[in-house]
Design goal:
By secondary structure, this protein is of the alpha+beta class. It contains 1 helix and 10 strands, in the order αββββββββββ. A hairpin with a 5-residue loop joins β3 and β4. Bound molecules: FE2/S2 (inorganic) cluster. The site of FE2/S2 (inorganic) cluster (FES) has 12 residues, from loops.
Length: 165
Amino acid sequence: MEPSSTVDASPKEISRRQFMSAAIAAMGGLIGAALGLPAIAYIIGPALTKKTENWVRLGAVSKVETGTPTLFKTTVQRQTGWIADQQEIAVYVLTEDGQKYVAMSNICTHLGCRVRWIAEQERFFSPCHNGVFDKDGNVVSGPPPRPLDRFETKIEDGVLYIRTV
Ligand code: FES
């Protein structure tokens, strides 16, 4: 008795045209990957790089006067994606005991004017809208919504560093 259906065990032949179409499509895919993957890596690479701690050297810790905010100025390198630039920052450093150091930004938290320490009045003043901060950077009066921003500090070999982001 004959089976009702037979399975064709011979390999299916493809035409030259079908082979060429498949080969061209495969080559196009390879070329696309060869060009596209580096381009994608170039574009998103900076976003995937691991952030590293960024400690910025301020100067000798011995320069900080006890009980008086002392101004340090320095330049930091910033990398935003593929754009690198330099930025000058100024930081007031305060210590009351020579052990613990507080580093405060001189940028007013209202609209970003630079505050100045006036020793006679023991206050930081923001010239733009009369914002006033106490020695620890807390708001005393005016429109600033929060205290002066602070930086994490560390001391190594007598040198004071702040951590920036
Ligand atoms: S910027 Fe300082 S009070 Fe407005």
